[in-house]
Design brief:
The chain is 27% helix and 38% strand. It is of the alpha+beta class.
Length: 153
């Protein structure tokens, strides 16, 4: 994994699969970059012979008495699916979270139609601890649920 400089942009706009996902939940790609690299986020990119094939971030999920819980987010390109990129990013970021002293990881918003990611997170010990009904406006499926997933580290 290659760590991204938090003061620079992760240039994924030239990669169609990543561009679509990165900007899908935000107003603009610059909004995405501001979130992905902002505040206390640490970000990494996964590279292959075809270029950047995924990215992930790690950050605190809460402050104060819940600052032992972290959050992470992941994006992989369509070309990377089935090649272990998401698993590698997850392994790396979970290890980073443990080294940073976090005791749990929480995914705040896993879209229910992302069945591949849900299966991967569950295979790695994450549990669905809550569901937000019709919380995501999917461009093709309409309003769909989103899950909160959690794992003790």
């Amino acid at each position: 994994m290659k760590r991204s400089n938090s003061t620079s942009t992760i240039h994924l706009d030239g990669h169609p699969g990543l561009h679509r996902w990165r900007c899908g939940n935000y107003t603009t790609c610059s909004d995405t970059n501001a979130y992905w690299l902002g505040g206390s986020h640490q970000a990494w990119v996964a590279e292959a012979d075809i270029g950047i094939v995924g990215t992930g971030y790690l950050c605190p999920n809460h402050q104060g008495n819940a600052d032992h819980i972290c959050n992470a987010g992941f994006v992989t390109s369509a070309e990377a699916r089935g090649r272990g990129v998401a698993q590698s990013l997850l392994n790396h970021i979970v290890a980073e979270a443990r080294m940073a002293g976090f005791k749990a990881m929480q995914f705040n918003f896993v879209v229910s139609t992302n069945t591949g990611a849900i299966a991967l997170w569950q295979r790695n010990g994450f549990e669905i601890v809550g569901t937000l009904p019709r919380a995501f406006r999917h461009p093709e499926a309409g309003f769909v649920d989103a899950h909160v997933m959690y794992q003790l580290l």
